[in-house]
Specification:
27% strand, 13 strands, five-stranded mixed beta sheet, 8 helices, alpha/beta, 2 domains, globular, four-stranded antiparallel beta sheet
């Protein structure tokens, strides 16, 4: 396994901290690295001089041959990195160098996104369905918890149930169960696009992707209504709160 070496300066004492990280993580060859990512351990270091805990994110590529998923983690931690982020160039470079068929190939820019994609794959789910489900449950959540702002939503497995964790602006998290019938309904309704992202090479499957899909299907529904065709209404799920934590 090829490692890349980095040097960062400790913000507490100013010492140079040498870091060695894998450029590519193949979990079949190095299974321990999956847990290191999911626990956050991979991106934490300790200054050898003063003992200060440091969070140091660095690019890596996560490869699970069994689940046929490859995740390119290209972190954005500053406005400067955001300005220079060229997704099309990254996508083109990946497609030029990786040609195996029927892979889910993703580009993510935060540690939380990387962890989420691994968890979704681990439980055999489709990340496209999960991203669309976030919108479905967000609408219901904001009506039930009126006045509570949502900062972020991530997939998690809670009590053997698939759940969405709502990180709210009141400093609480709320776990909402994903109804299996709602998941199946989304999977069926959006089958063309959620299946395509596992055969059409590289994708950034996140909020913007889901919003584009929802708008496209809403437009199609309206065109069908205007033409007199029957349109099956989208499901309105019941909000099942698993827990609420401060």
């Amino acid at each position: 396994m090829e490692n890349k070496k980095y040097t960062v300066k400790c913000p507490e004492c100013g010492a140079n901290v040498e870091i060695s990280r894998p450029a590519i993580i193949n979990v079949q060859n190095d299974p321990g690295y999956k847990e290191k990512i999911l626990s956050g351990q991979l991106f934490h270091e300790k200054c050898p001089k003063c003992g200060q805990e440091l969070q140091v994110v660095s690019r890596t590529t996560y490869h699970d041959m069994e689940k046929r998923i490859m995740i390119y983690f290209r972190p954005i931690t500053s406005q400067e990195e955001l300005k220079s982020f060229d997704y099309e160039a990254i996508r083109s470079a990946i497609e030029d160098n990786f040609t195996a068929p029927n892979y889910g190939i993703r580009v993510v820019t935060t540690v939380n996104e990387l962890m989420e994609k691994i968890k979704i794959a681990e439980f055999g789910l489709n990340d496209g369905v999960i991203e669309i489900a976030k919108f479905v449950y967000f609408d219901i959540f904001t009506k039930q918890f009126e006045g509570t702002g949502v900062v972020n939503i991530y997939y998690e497995r809670r009590d053997d149930k698939d759940a969405l964790i709502f990180f709210c602006d009141d400093s609480k998290t709320r776990s909402i169960m994903i109804d299996p019938d709602v998941y199946a309904s989304i999977e069926k309704r959006f089958s063309a696009v959620v299946n395509a992202i596992y055969t059409s090479r590289v994708c950034m499957v996140g909020r913007d992707w889901a919003l584009r899909m929802i708008r496209a299907y809403s437009k199609l529904d309206q065109e069908n209504k205007d033409s007199g065709a029957e349109v099956t209404p989208a499901p309105t799920p019941e909000l099942k709160l698993l827990d609420s934590q401060s």
